[in-house]
Amino acid sequence: MIDRRVYSIDQISEAFNVLIDARSRADYDKDLELQGQTNDIGGVGNQQNFHTGIETMDLDDLETEEGQGIWYRGCRCGETRGFLIVQRELEEAVDDGEIDVGCRGCSLWLKVLFAVIDIGDRDSDDDDPKFESPGLLKKF
């Protein structure tokens, strides 16, 4: 669903003035984080970080550097490798099967879904886990 709200010039100017000032921006960010931690009845809810501008995608949708254990994607802010994930981060989040990555150039976030696949008996000495998109895994 596309958000088709129309904002007035005054609302846009107020938003700009809040975001351009470091102190008011910090207050605004704190308010956003608190909103993400409360439920509909005002109690404390999910204690996970609240991120605005988050997009969800599979690990296979990111570019990769073969053998380097690095996945990345450019951001619309212009940062070529705005969203960067290293294998160590995936290993730390393996139980969740997802990882939230912030852009290195702006405030956007990316939720990346992944799973570890078992290659089976391998002849190589490479004991590193292999990460794949959950959409590509076979269901038995």
From TrEMBL:
Protein keywords: Cytoplasm, Iron, Metal-binding, Zinc
PROSITE patterns: DPH_MB
Coiled-coil intervals, chain numbering: none
Pfam families registered for this protein in UniProt: Zn_ribbon_CSL
GO biological process: protein histidyl modification to diphthamide
Record SUPFAM superfamilies: CSL zinc finger
Gene3D superfamilies tied to this protein: DPH Zinc finger
Domain DPH-type MB: 53-115
Pathway linked to the protein: Protein modification; peptidyl-diphthamide biosynthesis
Any one GO MF annotation of this record: metal ion binding
Protein's recorded name: Putative Diphthamide biosynthesis protein 4
Annotated organism of origin: Glarea lozoyensis (strain ATCC 74030 / MF5533)
